[in-house]
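Help wanted!
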Amino acid sequence: MKKHRDILIAHCEKEAGNFLSKIENLEPLFICTIGNTETAKIPEISAAGKYPEITDYTPAADVELLFYGECKCIDGVPATPDGIPTPALITLSALNLADIPVFAVSGGVKVKPYAPFINLRGEPGEDIRTGKAVKNVEEVIRRAEIVGSNFSKIADYLVIGESIPGGTTTALGVLLAMGVDAELKVSSSMPVNPHNLKIQVVEEGLKAAKINFGDLKSDPVKAIASVGDPMIAAFSGLVIGSASRIPVLMAGGTQMTAILSVVRALKKDVLENVAIGTTRWIIQDKSSDIRGIVSQIGDVPILAANLNFSNSEIEGLKAYEKGVVKEGVGAGGISIATFLKTGGKVSSEALLREIEKNYRKLVG
Amino acid sequence: MKKHRDILIAHCEKEAGNFLSKIENLEPLFICTIGNTETAKIPEISAAGKYPEITDYTPAADVELLFYGECKCIDGVPATPDGIPTPALITLSALNLADIPVFAVSGGVKVKPYAPFINLRGEPGEDIRTGKAVKNVEEVIRRAEIVGSNFSKIADYLVIGESIPGGTTTALGVLLAMGVDAELKVSSSMPVNPHNLKIQVVEEGLKAAKINFGDLKSDPVKAIASVGDPMIAAFSGLVIGSASRIPVLMAGGTQMTAILSVVRALKKDVLENVAIGTTRWIIQDKSSDIRGIVSQIGDVPILAANLNFSNSEIEGLKAYEKGVVKEGVGAGGISIATFLKTGGKVSSEALLREIEKNYRKLVG
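Answered by r_m:
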């Protein structure tokens, strides 16, 4: 089918086909879920900013980019230390081409966007090495649940993405606390995945919180509170609140597995109505293993947008083919939604041309 | 028609009929727009709280009531000095009976709800006697416009209400600054309308800002900034952003006319797609004149929910028939939307029974 041409199925083929049939004629709504964690400032752990301290601004800047087509709280756009731009460029391009409505939800940020966002009264997260990473997890989940429930009454289906630097490390924390073996399996925004550093950071956090692998299998709230991040709390609540009524495409890479694990513990039934939507760069990544994590949690399909930047004239985009960035701000999932909503009229190539146009305008 | 049985048409009969035909088979989305103004603390100006200082909590408490069926930031529910409860009781009852989705948008509040709300980064308003009532009006309008535009892509039509104590006085300020003769015409939450006090307060504000009647006919941003409130900014932006695409029922009393005046100055065309939805208590009020204000602005229909509490066994509700409270938190407009959505199955009487049930539970 034309509109599925650019969508790869990476896991649970039957469930993936069912999910695609459910959503292919529906109108998507995109939610960008943001948060900050001090964990992002551990040197060499995240490339979601030119230097550790500026990662505080990345989620806010990503949201501004989606709403205004430019950032307000920083000059230019968020970029890696090597200058490779934020995947929000992909998201922005897809949202515009398919005229998809967008909202932002904050689980707890250090820098607030100069743009409208749904405030859940969560606070930014601490360094997970403290073992006390996130405050008021239960309240944030409940408030997000209300928001998800209300969106589910007006939207056909949701595409939920995230922006939180350091998020794969906190995801690893939650996964290990909940007994999902994710060591050496979470992905990275860097071309060389700093697995050992991430494991060391998580182990320090687990130790500080006196948690062994799997201790919190049935206590996701404590897992997030100890070694997670505020985005995971907000995102999980959104899924729980909405997916009993409408399909939810969880738009992201291996971080989505931590949310799956939380959702399974809190409201298992809704897993039937969710899929992960990511990028080809994630499912083909040799330094991570999203299927290996998901298969421990449930029969949740993994779809991937067949984005390919290898023929781009722009070096800053070609770098994505070398494993930089890979995913974020719902880039893969919203690309899938765009292919579907436009009946394939917006192809992977057409999307790349729009991304290149936005790159030239915003990055130069 | 059965579903129109409890809806009164108070102004612009033809336009009202057209508007009702447009929305009668559509699904509504309710937005509660909140703000605070120090103006509310001027003694004897507002009954939206038991005493002036507690009016800071009223908007947050109203939002909590809509989301949770109970308030979090105060005990009980907001009430007048005589103990007559908030019109949010009506709104809550209607939303629940018709299963209408709800969101909250803050133009700038002193007390934040313990509930999810869309943050526009506005600040609470000052006493309008300073002539410097609201900061960042333009930014708040623009951010609200983005929110309205995104909601208009997923909702069939919007019902927008407000909660801001002191709001009729700030509305009077904006109306006079923009050259709409509203003296002795704005309504009040009190049975005896303190017109002279309101006029005196507004005149002091206009004088402080060096504004004469009508000076700001074409400058609504300055009118709000000088003698308005943050709710008016947010509400106006929501209307501007949405009403070019979908119908908008502006749910409130005479405060809606200040918003109409702002909208007319910023994006006149959209007035064709709006109506005011209020209560019978407002259109039959002898101490105010909503038609007399609207007719100076444009051919905007006024619809009213035929709510009648005179046969209620509950004194705190019967008081509404004596002119207390009258309107607020979108009570009239959302009642109309509920009659329509349920095809008349929820009648004015059925709604009253639900309100009485909630009264007994929440007020005792």
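OP: Thanks! One thing I noticed: The CA atoms of residues 108 and 121 of chain A lie 7 Å apart.
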